[in-house]
Design brief:
298 residues; alpha/beta; seven-stranded mixed sheet; 11 helices; 48% helix
Length: 298
């Protein structure tokens, strides 16, 4: 088992899974933790969050390591203290191979387990981005990780996706990973100032979850301009805020008055979005650290 493994997982796409993964990794690394990101999503969007698309193997390295016994290629220092096992379209080949093998071999996941566990050994935190709805890759990583974090946007589809993951966790604990835990649920994409909606979503989630796990208190507000801007810049949310501050200092709004000069502008919502993630991730890492201490892992 990867005792420090945190899987960010949902049965539905478009709920902020990758942004949450990147923010957790970034803030943990900034605190001095050595962090490994494992990208199991065939979309490979973690590469856009950290700007390494040109050097990503798009999941080929993980597939070759599992099925061709090649040494696993880990991208070193995509940021200080952050290494990455890239994902992408070749991750689909890994999923297909696991699916085929699992129909005829009860030990189908052993090689995957060994490769990922060995790669994770020297890190303080291993955070995994998973594809929505891909049961075979979810099954593979839930078999060896310790914690699950589920983002939701509170709508019916993402609530259904949460229910799917809860069922996956119950099955995993009963069949092959009794130590698997739901660390908590994250509420993403709440409209600014929609406090009544936020309260209702949280009430619904508490009714669904009972005492199983907490709903982390900070919600992430919707800011499409900031999200698009940070992806285009090849940075994640917290870095985007720093770029905005630097750009505003170097290019104040009045600099282009009376001229045809075009000055790059960043979304005005960057600071609020970064603040949301800062508060959320602090709470997640606090819960993670507390639980690790209770279990004697730290």
């Amino acid at each position: 088992m990867i005792s420090q493994g945190l899987v960010v997982c949902q049965g539905k796409g478009g709920v902020g899974k990758t942004c949450t993964t990147a923010a957790i990794a970034s803030l943990a690394a900034a605190s001095g933790w050595r962090v490994l990101i494992i990208d199991l999503d065939p979309q490979g969007n973690i590469a856009r969050e950290f700007g390494y698309t040109s050097v990503s193997d798009r999941g080929e390295g993980l597939y070759q390591s599992v099925y061709l016994d090649q040494p696993l290629r880990v991208l070193q220092n995509v940021r200080p203290n952050i290494d990455v096992v890239p994902g992408g379209e070749r991750t689909r080949l890994l999923a297909d191979s696991l699916m085929i093998e699992s129909t005829r071999n009860s030990n189908a996941f052993e090689r995957f387990n060994r490769v990922v566990t060995e790669a994770s050994a020297d890190y303080d935190l291993v955070v995994v981005d998973t594809p929505p709805g891909d049961l075979i890759l979810q099954r593979a990583i839930l078999g060896i990780a310790h914690y699950v974090l589920v983002p939701t946007s509170g709508d019916a589809a993402s609530t259904d996706g949460l229910a799917i993951i809860l069922s996956q966790i119950v099955n995993a604990r009963g069949d092959y990973n009794p130590d698997l835990e739901l660390l908590g649920v994250v509420v993403n994409f709440i409209p600014t100032n929609a406090k009544a909606l936020d309260r209702q979503i949280r009430e619904n989630l508490r009714e669904l979850l009972g005492d199983v796990a907490p709903v982390f208190s900070p919600s992430i507000r919707i800011n499409k301009m900031a999200a698009i801007g940070q992806r285009d810049a090849g940075v994640q949310v917290l870095e985007y805020e720093r770029l905005k501050k630097q750009n505003d200092a170097e290019n104040p709004w009045y600099k282009s008055l009376g001229t045809k000069e075009s000055i790059k502008r960043y979304s005005s919502g960057a600071a609020g979005l970064a603040s949301d993630y800062q508060k959320l991730v602090n709470e997640i890492l606090t819960a993670f650290t507390k639980r690790q201490s209770e279990l004697g892992y730290s």
